[in-house]
Amino acid sequence: MEIYSENYRLKSRDVDRFRSLRMSSLFEIMQETATEHSELLGSGIDVIRAKNLMWVLALQLVEIERMPKYREEIRIETWPGRTVHSLYPRYHCILDAEGNCIIRSSAIWTLADVLERKLVPSAQSGFDYAGVKTGKEISLPRPPRSFFTNESMPFTVPLSYIDMNGHMNNTRYFDLAENVFSPAKDGRSPSRILVEYASELRLGETYDISWGEKDGHCYLMGGGEKPSFRIVVDY
Fold first, then answer.
1. Which domains, and CATH codes, for the chain?
2. What pTM, to 2 d.p., does this model score?
3. What's the rounded mean pLDDT across residues 163-176?
4. Helices marked H in the chain — which ranges?
């Protein structure tokens, strides 16, 4: 199956107090549909775990025309791009009831060794995809070029944020963002989201989290001496 699609009606758990889809819920929807598609492609969680591998998200870019609302029916489409060495591009398009693509995403996934936590090239893993082109693709993400922060706090990773890979799940970073970004508190929806995951956040570890807002851009980063993650959200 080259393109995977799934219909979904937004539930109360998916939306914020303004009845709009949360950023973390958006990334959960994309994560789950990518997971379902990987199963059909023969590279699901059980298959790769048998080879001591795990899927790891490195970069993701999302362009948003509008966020869907509570109880709105949407259709999610996802498909892989062409594998390049150890990089596995993946695309998403979220459509409304009229068939308009209201959210587009591009992402770069990798396969990593479960024990060594190092990237594994496709020649070694055995997973290599020719990819699909639909005309709905946006450019692949690149790491943020500029950053601004002027606020900070310590953050300890709770058990509820840990996923099957034993680290803080990528979707949970957006709960952190929502809690500190003033546009989110005011009910404004993002128009563009760029996230880079450089290293893991582990259960019970405390990290320095910093953020700032400048010229309509909101920034969030955290980790040790080098940032473990960086997020830029445009409103």
1. 4-125 (3.10.129.10), 151-234 (3.10.129.10)
2. 0.96
3. 97
4. 23-40, 45-49, 122-125, 173-180, 182-185
